[in-house]
Amino acid sequence: MTPDPWWAFALDPAVRADSEANRLRDDAGGPLVNAPGDGGRLGLDYAGYLGLTDLLGAGTPASSVPDERAFVIVHQLCEVVFKQMTFDLAVVTATFERLLAHPDRVALALAEGEVDDESAAARVWRPAITAANRLRHAAQQLLPPIMKLMGRGGEDDVLFSRVEFGHFRAHLEPSSGFQAAQLRLIQRALGKGPLLDLRVFPGDNYGRHYTGSPCGHVALADPMVLQSGAEMASPPPDHPAAQAARLDDAAHALLAVVPALGEDRPPPPAVRRIHGDDVDRAVDRFRATLGPGASASGAAGRATDEFRADLEAAAAAENARRDGLDAARQGAYALQSRAPRSALAHVLSRIQSVDDALHGPSDGSFLTVHRRTVRRHVADDSGTGGGGMPYLVTSQRYLLPLFPALVAYQDLEL
Fold first, then answer.
1. Among 128, 280, 284, 380, which residue has the fewest nearby CB atoms (within 10 Å)?
2. Helix, strand, or coil here: 241?
3. According to the model, what pLDDT value does residue 1 have?
4. Looking at residue 111, what is its pLDDT?
5. What is the predicted pLDDT for the residue at 75?
6. Chain-centre distance of CA 29, in angstroms?
7. Are 244 and 86 in contact (CB under 8 A)?
8. Distance between the two ends of the chain, CA-based, in angstroms?
9. How far is CA 273 from CA 142, 316, 408, in A?
């Protein structure tokens, strides 16, 4: 049995439909949840099933300031949503990989499958379709409103006080939302792994607290930043969450085996590459992020040089990957031309919407709402970890757009 039952999910339609086959069991063969108790009675109750004692007891405030409880709850709610999103990404990935392992079933990628019917396509695709739908809903409808709990409500009611935040903020250093490991895993799933290795984040605050000395700029996925979340953000291959991390690769692999259109059709445009001008703009923004007093010959100059080297290497590696996506591009073109209402097209469009809802420039995206929250409550534009607004802006406007999810598919809407 999988050590963590959370990840022991079934995609086989026959297993899912059989209440005996789909029930998780302990090492002795008994039901893992709701085993018979004394006298044959079942002992499960609502609180026990949901683990409410642990869930509601999690999180210890650092101060007696009432608003800190709202601050804790907001971040806990985000992490619970991230947990569901990570799981749903794994379900989608596992569906893609299951089809790839059975080439005779790849034709199902082009089939239309209504969620509630009993066609072969629906039975195969139902978990992935509902998972992809939940992903989009979570990114668009759950995460931004959660962050708004630290803003204003109806009739301009203040829901979280900037003044009160200032009373307890210093107690939280060096913890920071930049340490949200599950969000980093979601970004990895959406093809943004190269960004997590750029030395773009000011690590001195972490260095002083965790290692005892400043350390300059570090990557967002650096174990020193992520601390106990490092394995979740970059799971090893044998970790269950690694399924989620493989989403972008699995999607492109599945697109590559979708039968291409005939030679009588014009070829699709090539996958967009990252150009030198893109790198230059990002470097200029990074230099501006360091502040007007940053010296080109001192630590700021070294940080800028390191950032340029990292980004140039990441861009070169990404361009090489994109040069190898011709088959996936042809498959994406064929999918959108021949089967735009197919289950695969539905799932991919939802994934693309997730990327936009999390990272896009629109007023309602999660990062935009998050930036507004930071600006409203942090007078000096820095977060408790030492980063804050300038680094959020640099990432959202200049780095994230260079690494979109499903790059062979995302700009082919017909």
1. 380
2. coil
3. 43
4. 78
5. 96
6. 35
7. yes
8. 45
9. 33, 9, 11
Residues of the chain whose pLDDT is less than 70?
A: 1-2, 38-42, 113, 293-297, 379-381, 413-414
Peptide bond into 66 cis (omega under 30): no
Say how far apart CA 273 and CA 326 lie, in whole Å.
13
Q: Which of 166, 100, 155, 88 is nearest to 128 (CA)?
A: 88
Would you give the distance in Å from CA 318 to the centre of its chain?
Answer: 19
Q: Closest Cα to residue 256, out of 133, 153, 377, 106?
A: 106
DSSP structure string for 13-67: HHHHH-TTTTS-B-TTSSBSSS-B-GGG-B---HHHHHTHHHHHH----SSS-TH
Q: H or E element: which one contains 199?
A: strand 199-202
Give, in order, the Cα–Cα distances in Å from 136 to each of 33, 94, 139, 319, 354.
30, 18, 5, 28, 5
Put simply, whether the predicted model's pTM sits higher than 0.85 gets the answer yes
The average confidence (pLDDT) of the chain is 91
Q: Are 330 and 260 in contact (CB under 8 A)?
A: yes
Q: CA 299, CA 122: separation in Å to the nearest integer?
A: 57
What is the C-alpha to C-alpha distance for residues 221 and 178, in angstroms, rounded to an integer? 9
Tell which residue, 375, 342, 330, has the closest CA to residue 114: 342
pLDDT for the residue numbered 413: 64
DSSP for 354-384, written as a single string: HHHHHH-SSTTSHHHHHHHHHHHH-TTS--T
Are the CB atoms for 341 and 129 separated by under 8 Å? no
Which residue is listed with tokens 């009993």? 118
User: How many Å apart are CA 108 and CA 129, to the nearest integer?
Assistant: 13
Q: What is the pLDDT of residues 302-359, one digit of tens each?
A: 999 999 999 999 999 999 999 999 999 999 999 999 899 999 999 999 999 999 999 9
Non-local (6+) Cβ contacts of 398 within 8 A are 281, 282, 285, 286
d(CA 126, CA 306): 46
The residue ranges of DSSP E strands in 288-375, in sequence order, are none
Contact of 355 with 135, CB cutoff 8 Å: no
Residue showing tokens 């090489």: 320
DSSP letter at 158?
A: B
Structure tokens at 177: 């939302």
Which helix (H) or strand (E) is 103 found in, with range? none
307: alpha, beta or left? (left if phi > 0; alpha if psi -120 to 50): alpha
CA 89 to chain centre: 9
